[in-house]
Amino acid sequence: MQTVYGIVIDGIAYGMILFIISVGLSVTLGLMRVVNLAHGAFAMVAGYLASYAVQAMGVPYLVALLAVVALTVALALPLERLLYRRIYGSANELAQVLLTIGLTFVVVASVNYIFGPTLKRIPLPEFLTGTVDLGPKEIPAHRAFVIVVGVAALLGLWGLLERTDFGIRLRAAVENPEMAAALGIRTERLYAITFGLGVGLAALGGVLGAELLPLEPYYALRYIVLFLAVVAVGGAGSIFGSAAAALSLGIIDTAGKYLYPSFGEFFFYAAIMIILFRWPHGFFQGKSA
Amino acid sequence: MSPVLRTALFGTAVGLALMAGPALAATIKVGVIAPFSGPFATAGQTFKQAIEVYQAQHGKTVGGDTIEFVFKDLDQANPAQSKALAQELIVKEKVGYLAGFFFTPDALAVAPLIDEAKIPCVIFNAATSAITEKSPLYVRTSFTLWQASVPLADYVHKQGVKKVITAVSDYGPGIDGETAFKTTFEKAGGQVVDTIRMPLKSTDFAPFMQRIKDSGAEAIYAFLPAGPTTLAFAKAFNDTGLKAAGIKFFGPGDITQEPDLPALGDAALGIVTSFHYSQAHDSAMNKAFVAKHKELFGSTQTVTFTSVGAYDGTHLIYKMVEATGGKSDGAKAVDAIKNLSWESPRGPLKLDPASRTVIQTMYIRETVRGADGLINKEIAAIPDQPDYGYKGGK
Amino acid sequence: MTAAVTKAPAGATAAAITAIPPRPSRAFRDAVAVALIAGGGLAAYWIFPEDLGLLTRILATCLYVLSLDLVLGFCGIATLGQAALFGTGAYAAGIAAVHLVADPILLLVVGGVAGGLMALATGALVLRAHGLTLLMLTIAVTQLLQELANKLRWLTGGSDGLSGVEPDPVLGLFRFDMYGRTSYLFALAVLVVGVVVAQRIVRSPFGLACRGVKEDPLRVAALGGSPRGHLVGMYTVSGVFAGVAGALTAVTSGIVGLDSLSFTWSAEALVMLVLGGAGHLYGAVVGTVAFMGVHHVLASTNPFHWMLFIGLFLMAIVLFAPGGITGGVARIAGLVRRRAP
């Protein structure tokens, strides 16, 4: 029993990291129809910036977290203007894949040049080291923090999309971009803001997840498949779909590794195949935000 | 011209050029294949630096021949690419020796090539026992997992530990380590309660930690290739409270290699490893080695086991060039150094004529806080350890 | 996930159409292309006698990228799982070479059959999906196969790679040597045959029907055709090509590694194809030669320079030359032709 509890808790923590990073991708894919393979690159850049801020400049962890998310968004918005805006829309799928892979390569090369090839850490503050007692199992404080932030992000996004004017416009634009534009919604600005939101979530996940997805220059390429998997399983544009997908894949992966360690990612990908056969458009049909 | 004829003529011409080349030329090239980019770039860097240290201490010529090193980057375990690089080094660069090799698959892949070209291959790191069985032209100056794990298993047993769990990366060296430890430990009367093989790509180690916790073992034997994954594993061990629960941590020294120690921080404290080299080894030769390194590169943070592997490998290449008078004769070169004994920064070494792996002292070390940062402090020395895994130690 | 990425890439289609100017007859141009590949290949043999190892890998990769062009360029199937087919062929040929047969041509047949069967089996399953779902499914298939190859260590050598692939001399006459001369000429012959066969297939009624499915699946269905049947059919053909390419790599290099079943290898094929220009076979050859040639030069100094370069290059292609290298050349040629009456 304790073991099951442990697996579930570990799986949820892992899943939450996947969720925070992937939901940004899901939102941009759902709204702008952009297969953004550079999504992981934004998470990685944020991680490196945070590592530099905390280690070299001595910025407190939480301050660095917020500052880095803002900084990454600021760095990415010009890219939206210069690059992404040209490839919006479902007709450009191949162009999107290539442009964003190209961008990822450039980021990988630059990060390697600036920060070097070795693994980087983001030292955790005192209150996030050690363990927290959660009933039958003690879990690392950092993981507990990740779970809390993940739940907050989920609720925050839900509130933003369901309860605000912005959310209504956004969902309108997701459902029918032409109609939304005809109704006077400024889709261009909406796109920029949504792109920023996606990048911000990637950045948040990149910093928080550095303990589970270690920072090295190939990060951007290594984990993008994971993020895409979550989006595909959850359904593009669906927040709850992403959450459900990330948590179930996180738990499946953790359980698989616990029960049959040497089978590695076998269960993860087998689960993806089975789910996609059953629900080819993801858990939540990929329409609702 | 018919292709047959052309091929034949061409072959003869190149063949002649290759045979004649090293004998006449005053430069003997050594091709080094290692990771110089990517997550394991530090390993390639230590190879290169150690070679430069050796050349700074001993000159770049042997009996009038200049030794020149040619470096090729292979960022990850990729046997096909390794073979292609080796082929290019042999055919195009006309190297007389191959060296380097951080990963086992990369070293194994070149066996048919060195046999065909008849050139020796000096392995600076790759630690699976089976490699040197594949060709008589392999020589190894690093260590094998068997070599490190057999004395460690005895040591752990003598500490009164009865139940151990093993956790290794699921590839050649990991399986070697697991087998060596399990066999020795059980022979000594201990019990290995579970064996975990973790995929090489793992980044989240929490599920494995849970399994270790549930196994009821008093201690863990762990092996992962030195680098990022090792770091994550050691940290997970700490963060999930296994260390606090009193589970002892043993393993080959990869896990606490010197370049990783600053990043590991306090998580490394108390880990007991068995290995052939610690930067903190107390000998005049090691002090000279480390000092020269500091003089050349300004820092000693990266000096570690891969450094001495390359340093001693370079020594053997010099000896082989000396023995063959610069001529290309792989079999004679390797014959000349079988049984060679010499003093290395790590201690006394002797090449085992059968396994062509060095016989060396294994040190049991504990990671402690030294004057400037963490060090691997030697607490016991077990001399004359051969490669127990050669031809079936299993 | 519906409308997001379901449509075939219109940009590539447009480029494919513009890239085929209606000037000389098809058969004539096809023959010229084959002659150029064969002639260029032989010239390279004389010019770079010390780089035959690399050149052989380039030729085998050309065939692999060509196999992707058959599905992506002619059927509009966006896949990131081509390595699954390549790796299946490579491992099948490698295992056969170690245990059963040693004739290199027979080994290519083994690889082709294995690749084709894998494509048929997985294609029938995954080609129901579109867009991101299809991408994910093809990735998942590749990852599962890689995991399997890693686990079956006794058969595949696991992460150590499958070594001991030592084929007999080609036709009993030409031994595979260290300098790669036989390997190179053998690979060149296979590639030329492959290109000719691929030309035949895409110009055949079946090939044209596949193009029809790509342009407008509904119409094909309305006319009584089976869009999915065609897709699975072409995917299987592509699997044969990829399998032969894998077997060719195994035979000429003597080793098969887990990387031949990796996601990266699939992605690289895609990059090379689009670099060259999808949808007209030759783009695959041009893109592969350009990509691997530049890679060899740049990566030997510093692999990250290479990544920076290829990254910028890819972005430039998308923004300024959507038809890839061949598309760009065709456009320039078109401009020149229009200028000179």
From TrEMBL, chain A:
The chain crosses the membrane at residues 6-27, 34-53, 59-77, 97-115, 141-161, 190-208, 220-246, 258-279. Keywords: Amino-acid transport, Cell membrane, Membrane, Transmembrane, Transmembrane helix, Transport. InterPro entries: ABC_transp_permease, BCAA_transport_permease. It is a multi-pass membrane protein. It is found in: Cell membrane. Its main location: membrane. It holds the Pfam family BPD_transp_2. PANTHER family: ABC TRANSPORTER ATP-BINDING PROTEIN (PTHR11795:SF442), BRANCHED-CHAIN AMINO ACID TRANSPORT SYSTEM PERMEASE PROTEIN LIVH (PTHR11795). Belongs to the binding-protein-dependent transport system permease family. LivHM subfamily. This is Branched-chain amino acid ABC transporter permease. The lineage of its organism: Bacteria, Pseudomonadati, Pseudomonadota, Alphaproteobacteria, Rhodospirillales.
UniProtKB/TrEMBL annotation, chain B:
It comes from the Bacteria. Gene3D superfamilies: 3.40.50.2300. Pfam families: Peripla_BP_6. The keyword Protein biosynthesis does not apply. Residues 27-368 form the Leucine-binding protein domain. CDD domains: PBP1_RPA0985_benzoate-like (cd20013). The keyword Nucleotide-binding does not apply. Keywords: Amino-acid transport, Signal, Transport. SUPFAM superfamilies: Periplasmic binding protein-like I. Residues 1-25 form the signal peptide. Belongs to the leucine-binding protein family. PANTHER family: LEUCINE-SPECIFIC-BINDING PROTEIN, PERIPLASMIC BINDING PROTEIN OF ABC TRANSPORTER FOR NATURAL AMINO ACIDS. This is ABC transporter substrate-binding protein. The lineage of its organism: Bacteria, Pseudomonadati, Pseudomonadota, Alphaproteobacteria, Rhodospirillales.
UniProtKB/TrEMBL annotation, chain C:
PANTHER family: ABC TRANSPORTER ATP-BINDING PROTEIN, HIGH-AFFINITY BRANCHED-CHAIN AMINO ACID TRANSPORT SYSTEM PERMEASE. It is found in: Cell membrane. This is Branched-chain amino acid ABC transporter permease. It is a multi-pass membrane protein. Pfam families: BPD_transp_2. Keywords: Cell membrane, Membrane, Transmembrane, Transmembrane helix. InterPro entries: ABC_transp_permease, LivM-like. Its main location: membrane.
